[in-house]
Amino acid sequence: MNDVARRARVDFALALRRQWAGSLYPALVGQAGADPDRASVHAAPVYPWFAWLERSAQKMLWRAVEEAVDATDAAGAEDALSASAPGLELNPDLRLPAWYTDVDIHIQPGGIWRADRDALVYEAGAKLVMLGENDDYAFHTLFTDTAVPDRPYERIVDLGCGFGKSTRPFKRRWPDAEVIGVDLSAPVLRLAARRTAGLGIRYVQADAADTGLPAGSADLVTATMLVHELPPPVIAGVLAEAARVLAPGGLLRVLDFHPTGDVVRDLALVEHGDRNNEPYLPMLFGTDCLALCADAGLADARWVAFDERGAGRLETTRWPDRAEWHFPWAVLEARKPEDARA
Ligand SMILES: C[S@@+](CC[C@H](N)C(=O)[O-])C[C@H]1O[C@@H](n2cnc3c(N)ncnc32)[C@H](O)[C@@H]1O
Questions:
Q1: Fold of 138-335
Q2: pLDDT beyond 90 at 72
């Protein structure tokens, strides 16, 4: 298969997803009726196609992306990624938890932690998460620029940093801060170190619930797209660890999903967890993260909406009306009280 054919396969899978979001989802909303519930959504004639296409297009996408990556730099990447890099702190003794390794997250074959090729495939797939509109750092930059107060930070910790896409915008905005990305997967951290070489970012292989970073050492802890991938007890552990690592007065900013109150949209989000191999995602909506923050000693915890196509962080939990399917992004924000013990 030549490059044109490979590109066409990716474009085809992406076009299917756009069709799913832009046509099938509005059709589902229309057919579910004026006062929809779970039963009326499932009874809608378009529902079987809606459900089938979500999973099938995602599988197609991974296959197309894998082929494209294999044909480009993956073969030569192993050595480059495996080389130690400045700021890269891997832990060969770290035991990855079974809840993490048992799931092929997002249906990516084999997950993102076995080999360096997995990280490259994940990176290519991540460009397509927002229907092809996330191939630069715009989404993550919007979060950094609108959800984090404009003040100096000395140490910023990005939990579940992946290949550094969420970490880099913090270093860009606060170049004098020490910026640390934490992740379980060695391959994604090696890729992160490669992609952000020369920026002085530290990458630490650790569980976000047990980072090994000193208590009270950070003035900002963030996590982007992490908590919906965690079982509820691990969410509690991660929030407790964030509170431990934060210095008094420090801030927590988490970007993830939150129910909107719209029955069809919220059901589609919950079922996305099943269809996209994200088994812990539905559990997030039964988890009281605000109470977990309070238990961890964090104050003023709240969720606010995040409009990734507009202003970014909003002051409310109302999202702008949109006919098409979109993820209801939201920011969980909290702070460690000034009078807390470090
Ligand atoms: C959806 S990705 C998001 C990556 C990055 N924050 C971004 O926005 O591009 C979730 C990341 O969290 C990592 N992860 C999942 N559970 C973790 C845990 N308990 N501790 C540290 N990292 C974790 C995964 O390996 C993956 O790289």
A1: Rossmann fold (3.40.50)
A2: no
> What residue spans define the domains of the chain?
138-335
Of 183, 210, 272, the residue with max ligand 1 atoms within 8 A of its CB, to mutate for a pocket test, comes to 183
How far does the centroid of ligand 1 lie from the alpha carbon of residue 161, in Å? 5
pLDDT of 196 > 60? The answer is yes
Percent of the chain at pLDDT exceeding 70: 94
Does residue 299 contact residue 337 with C-beta atoms inside 8 Å?
A: yes
Token digits of residue 242: 């964030």
Task: Count the residues in the chain.
Answer: 342
CA of 138 to the centre of ligand 1 (A): 19
The closest alpha carbon to 38, from 268, 258, 257, 259, belongs to 268
What digits encode the pLDDT tens for the residues 123-168?
988 877 665 555 577 899 999 999 999 999 999 999 999 999 999 9
Residue from 129, 226, 308 to probe ligand 1 pocket by mutation (most atoms less than 8 Å from CB): 226
Decide: 165 in ligand 1 pocket, CB within 6 A. Answer: yes
pLDDT in tens, 302-328: 999 999 988 999 999 899 999 999 999
pLDDT value at residue 3: 75
Going by C-alpha positions, the residue among 251, 270, 272 that lies closest to residue 262 is 270
